[in-house]
Amino acid sequence: xxxxxxxxxxxxxxxxxxxxxxxxxxxxxxxxxxxxxxxxxxxxxxxxxxxxxxxxxxxxxxxxxxxxxxxxxxxxxxxxxxxxxxxxxxxxxxxxxxxxxxxxxxxxxxxxxxxxxxxxxxxxxxxxxxxxxxxxxxxxxxxxxxxxxxxxxxxxxxxxxxxxxxxxxxxxxxxxxxxxxxxxxxxxxxxxxxxxxxxxxxxxxxxxxxxxxxxxxxxxxxxxxxxxxxxxxxxxxxxxxxxxxxxxxxxxxxxxxxxxxxxxxxxxxxxxxxxxxxxxxxxxxxxxxxxxxxxxxxxxxxxxxxxxxxxxxxxxxxxxxxxxxxxxxxxxxxxxxxxxxxxxxxxxxxxxxxxxxxxxxxxxxxxxxxxxxxxxxxxxxxxxxxxxxxxxxxxxxxxxxxxxxxxxxxxxxxxxxxxxxxxxxxxxxxxxxxxxxxxxxxxxxxxxxxxxxxxxxxxxxxxxxxxxxxxxxxxxxxxxxxxxxxxxxxxxxxxxxxxxxxxxxxxxxxxxxxxxxxxxxxxxxxxxxxxxxxxxxxxxxxxxxxxxxxxxxxxxxxxxxxxxxxxxxxxxxxxxxxxxxxxxxxxxxxxxxxxxxxxxxxxxxxxx
Length: 608
Description:
The relative contact order is 0.03. It is built from 25 helices and no strands. The longest helix is centred in the N-terminal third of the chain and has 83 residues, at 54-136. By secondary structure, the chain is an all-alpha fold. Helix 6 (140-147) crosses helix 7 and helix 8 crosses helix 9 (222-231). The protein has four domains: 140-205; 213-400, no CATH class; 413-470, no CATH class; 479-607, Monooxygenase. Residues 181-439, 464-607 form the Conserved Oligomeric Golgi complex subunit 6 C-terminal domain. Component of the conserved oligomeric Golgi complex which is composed of eight different subunits and is required for normal Golgi morphology and localization. It is a peripheral membrane protein. Pfam families: COG6_C, COG6_N. It comes from Nematostella vectensis (Starlet sea anemone).
């Protein structure tokens, strides 16, 4: 039965619910506990009605709660809508801000990039400014090097700073061709002021240095050489410094010249030049040699001073001429004393040669317009004038008493003296070192007398050694040849007349153009031919018997042999002509070989 009851209860839903409720443990179900607590708030009476209306009350209460919730939720919704609207607006603002931030980020990025560019540009401008200042402005140490104190020496830093100023001044010309003309003009004006002050200081220092070059062998420092090279850009200052140098060296050279004349060298070696005043050639030659050496030394000094400049040879000659001008007066006085003392014609001519040689040698260094060269030339002319005066006096004495030549036509004593004088003059002239053309020009001024062949023949050979008198020797040789030809003609005529061939040859010359046989002509007949040949045979046997006495007076064997040989040649030529005439069949000579038994070749072999 119990089992049946259980089955019924399981099939009844209400029973199942009740069982489920009864089996439920309320203390463990929080939801039921909470529901019961909520139910206790409004289910106060446990009545049937209350139980029947419980569901409705719960539903009403649930509806009321829902309405309250709806109202509350409506307010919440309004707030949420408002919040949504605010959030939406905030979202828009955020999006707008995001866009702005994006734009700002791009702007910041662009600004940063531009900032880098600007920074680079600023750095570049700083570099350009530094480069501009470095190129167109002087450093403080360069300014100090240029200015310096008045008495401080010029150093290498000064020349470097001056070169820098000149470079900046030159570069400013490039600025004037750009838009920076104002800056270029200002910088150029500033550099011009620096340059003027620098050149003024350099000029003062160089002038002081040049004034100190008064020793015998001064030392030209490299700094002074650079200073002269820099001053070349200022021609006026450069000229003033050269004048100062020339004045200082002139004083030194004059002092050294006087010392060389009176004191000699250091320690007395070489000896004073005036100790040799008794020997005019050595005295004048030593003075000129010292002068030449001094000029050469000062020329080397001047080259050292101006080696970095573009000064020409003319400027150097002007300075050297100014330096040596002071020697002209003491040199001229001493040479005039020697010349006026009349040391003799040969000595005067030797002095003239020495003066001419050194005048030419020194003139090639100083030029012909130098005062010392003019002085040497004047002394040369004075020596030549005194020399010719001496020759004129000698010639006047000869003309006052002319000696006749001796019977042997030899030179007279006065002629020998004159020739000895001429030989001494020519020897002196030949020993000089004057060029050959100059010696020939000087010789043309000597008036050499013409002598007879005998006199010339005895004195010409010693003159052959002098190359500068070739024109005079040529003239004398021509005159000698003319006299020798006359002597040969006389000798040949004498032989022909004495040997009998002269008359026959004269008759032949008179009748050779006639068209008749010459054997019938008077003087050319057979008998005349025989007589002439007989006398000619005697001459052939002794040729020396027919010599004129004038030939024996010739002093040289060469001339005598020449006269005899050429006279014999003339005789042989005459015999050859007559032999041809006699052996010619047209002249009708019988047995011509008996008339002229010797051929011309045989006669020539006998006479030569």
